[in-house]
């Protein structure tokens, strides 16, 4: 299968999963409110945020091991693969134990949280259910990661959607069971959710193991040295995820200390609006670490990796820059349609728009980090990006406090958002490109030029968006759709002339044809194992 076809399958499957995930998430919240009530849904939000550290371990394990498993898979050496795979299983089993320990600590401190007494016991059972769910995910991560290692992106994304849907099915079954109390409903929902989630992930792993018998565990093949190597990479990624998890809450804490809940509302709305830029940019990058791993084991890996880095960077900026420009222009309209009429004052909306526009630069930087760290990891370079990410995350709250002291009183509320933007732009747009070009032995100017190409079409599309906005008397969903359509049409037309290189149009048409065939059922699964 050609790289264009692989890219088409991967990106199309990723975006289908993202769209389905958003739709299921919106449905889940509405069903939770209807079934459990606002107080219990608020408790679920509190518990989910409280178990964030355990979720980081889960995320780190799920995003690690792809290179190790992929390298062993592409080597064609079954004995080597058996050692790496079973060692990864041993590491993930130990990590599952760490997850259980973190959840146990959360159980012990739960009474210290502001939880109504009548819901305390239900909250404990909910946490136990989530502990079991998280432990299963972590323990089976190596087997599940083989979808990524072999680039079976349709299967990988399909099972992720099924996992997301299991929570929706669980809340529907809870609704149909008509629990006698909110506490009983929370317990029932928690255990139905973990049961269905476990069935889905076991089915995903089992169906892959049925086709690939190498995935049947063989503890005798475990090697301690290989375990240590895998554990070092997983712990490095864990530190990166922990740092990334804490930086926005740190900004929210600064806003709370300086401006109270009013500041938290402004910061929360601004961060969520700006964060949609990163969500849009997630499609091209999932699975790119597996592609880098495969190419690093092929003939002439240096040249192939340079081409992958160059074209992936171009693709990412082609998506990220217009998303950032569109959200920057659309922010006032979007914010007023989103929260207008809900009791939020015009002053809060205006301040949230300002913060969202400031934070967009930081999210653009994080979008580039998202693709570059996966390329570095897939090629076997772990330490450079981990140190940089942790440094940027630690610098963000420190700079935020400093700006809170230095900025004039009228714009002091900018401090955490400005710190987020400056720290990440400096680290991931200023420093990281030098690391990328040095590691992959490619010209720095060519990478920066590739990133700058979408700026001109994005500026032209932004002008079209402003023109369409002037045609409407008030912001509405219709005006947002009209502005988005105008932006998209102008950007694609101008971008195809300004940002495309020789051969790009043919590649795009090939990718679109393959994506269409794939959606119609003719594409099959994009597997690197074929």
Low-pLDDT regions: 522-530
State the helicity in percent bands.
over 70%
Average of the residue pLDDT scores: 82
How much strand?
A: under 5%
The radius of gyration over CA amounts to 24 Å
Short structural summary:
The protein has 530 residues and is mostly helical. The protein has helices spanning 3-36, 38-50, 52-62, 66-75, 78-109, 117-139, 141-149, 153-177, 182-211, 224-280, 288-296, 301-339, 346-378, 383-406, 415-439, 444-452, 455-469, 477-498, 504-519. It has a domain at 1-222.
What does this protein look like?
The structure is a single chain. The chain has 530 residues and is mainly α. The chain has a domain of 222 residues. Helix content is 82%, strand content 0%. The protein contains 19 helices and no strands. The protein is globular and about 70 Å long. The termini are close together.
Write the layout of secondary structure elements.
Layout: H1 3-36, H2 38-50, H3 52-62, H4 66-75, H5 78-109, H6 117-139, H7 141-149, H8 153-177, H9 182-211, H10 224-280, H11 288-296, H12 301-339, H13 346-378, H14 383-406, H15 415-439, H16 444-452, H17 455-469, H18 477-498, H19 504-519
Helix pairs in contact: 1-2, 1-8, 1-19, 3-5, 3-6, 3-10, 4-5, 4-7, 4-11, 5-6, 5-10, 6-9, 7-9, 8-9, 10-12, 10-13, 10-14, 11-13, 12-13, 12-16, 12-17, 12-18, 13-15, 14-15, 17-18
